[in-house]
């Protein structure tokens, strides 16, 4: 198997972007495309801001604290309490907006959005509707689902707006006791809502967008993006239409709890809508929920009619003013955009390009490294720990060998305790020709089995050094050929496939220690004589 194919297969099995069942994917989209429908997808994403306190109160934000333990009077809407805007949340919003090339509003406003529900004690949510923090951004990302796309392609989705808002509490329904309880820990947790234009066509693109947004927010440190904890929540608006015609009626799919879920939910919904329209029925504009277990979207009961949110300006908060240039004006102490601009770190796309140039690795490898913080850390440490270390050998050891072996052991990267310097040692042994790839694999296996010896010690003690001496290699080849006169005849009669048998025998004979490139060369020479 070539390394490229193996890389594809690895990615195919491990990348969250990858749709579970490739066959079903193809069938579904074929149906859509054959009938000349085009999918249209626009995402609305809520990202929980990393902050130690809430958006408008001093209560803490820790995930999983005891029920109703992090609730200030304001969060419980006790009369007489007032909101105080959390400066850190504004900075996070601005940083994110800058990273997404948004236009930032020098003055934005907060609004009340009313609805009646037990987990919203004030009867309204404070959000930004008329004039949000930022508008008109864009997110560029790579769409690359190995097995589906041959090559990565670049896609851009425009960002309609980015706004700050507070989260609601959580209702807990106790069916047996026939009562509902409310946990207000989440009430007032700071969120950024990002509204994307309907620029996407299918589930893979939607998942790839979410993946890249998550890469960016994690890099900025503005959101943990742990979808399983609800830190990143994706609503997908989905419709289909024919090219050149107006957009179709859309549905909104909520409750999507993973990147892979985004791909699956959108694909399911596109397929469902295609079937409806093909059967002469209509798509109903409704909110649906993604049921990950049943792998389908289902209508949500609680939102049957269009709500009137009775938006009104939040009277208890002043307009949010930002400092747009270097010189503080009359409003000193404002959040300064130039200051935050200086704090912007290297963004994921910049990292991918740098890795490609600096280390001469492929685009595909750069994409995979940047998608996984731990992998990137490993790679960076390996390259920093020793000058002149072969970057391509390092990437290969990480992306092919390490991931494959972790896979076999059903371990995640986070659980891997092998240090980058041990991995680096293995690369060095391979780079210097002391060992070959097969031995590198065995050394990695030892390291993963918590062997405490260094790779170099293991090689020395077990005699795993590579056989490179040309004389010795010739002798080994001679021995194997002598033992197989019949195979030689077959080979010379044109059955070149038996060449592999010679190579295999030599590998076995030398316990996989021979320099296989040299063996192949030597064998070819001897067989052509
Ligand atoms: P509303 O005013 O009902 O909230 P918006 O125009 O604000 O509607 O759009 C909300 C979200 O729905 C956006 O993310 C947008 O990209 C998406 N969207 C709008 N129209 C469509 C459509 N026809 N198909 C798919 N997504 C759509
Ligand atoms: Mg909207």
List the helices and strands and how they pair.
Elements: H1 3-14, H2 22-34, E1 37-48, H3 87-99, E2 103-104, E3 107-108, E4 111-114, E5 124-127, E6 134-143, E7 153-166, E8 170-174, E9 179-183, E10 190-196, H4 203-220, E11 232-242, E12 251-256, H5 259-278, E13 287-291, E14 296-299, E15 312-313, E16 320-323, E17 335-336, H6 337-343, H7 348-359, H8 363-371, H9 373-385, H10 391-408, H11 420-431, H12 437-448, H13 455-462, H14 470-483, H15 485-492, H16 499-509, H17 516-528
Parallel strand pairs: 12-13, 16-17
Antiparallel strand pairs: 1-10, 1-11, 2-6, 3-16, 4-5, 4-15, 6-7, 7-10, 8-9, 11-12, 13-14
Adenosine-5'-diphosphate binds next to β1, β10 and β11.
What is the number of independent domains?
3
Instruction: Please count the beta strands (DSSP E, at least 2 residues each).
Output: 17
Radius of gyration equals 29 Å
**Helical percent range?**
40-55%
Bound molecules: adenosine-5'-diphosphate, magnesium ion
Shape: elongated
Show unreliable segments. 1-27
Biggest sheet, open or closed, and with what strands and sense?
Answer: 9 strands, mixed
What's the helix count?
17
Walkthrough of the structure:
A hairpin with a 4-residue loop joins strand 13 and strand 14 (296-299). The protein has helices spanning 3-14, 22-34, 87-99, 203-220, 259-278, 337-343, 348-359, 363-371, 373-385, 391-408, 420-431, 437-448, 455-462, 470-483, 485-492, 499-509, 516-528, and strands at 37-48, 103-104, 107-108, 111-114, 124-127, 134-143, 153-166, 170-174, 179-183, 190-196, 232-242, 251-256, 287-291, 296-299, 312-313, 320-323, 335-336. The chain has 529 residues and is α+β, with helices and mostly antiparallel strands. It starts with a helix and ends with a helix. Helix 7 packs across helix 8 (363-371), helix 9 (373-385) packs across helix 11 (420-431) and helix 11 packs antiparallel against helix 12 (437-448). The chain has a nine-stranded mixed sheet. It has a three-stranded mixed sheet with strand order 3-16-17. Strands 5-4-15 form a three-stranded antiparallel sheet, with no helix packed on it. The chain has 17 helices and 17 strands.
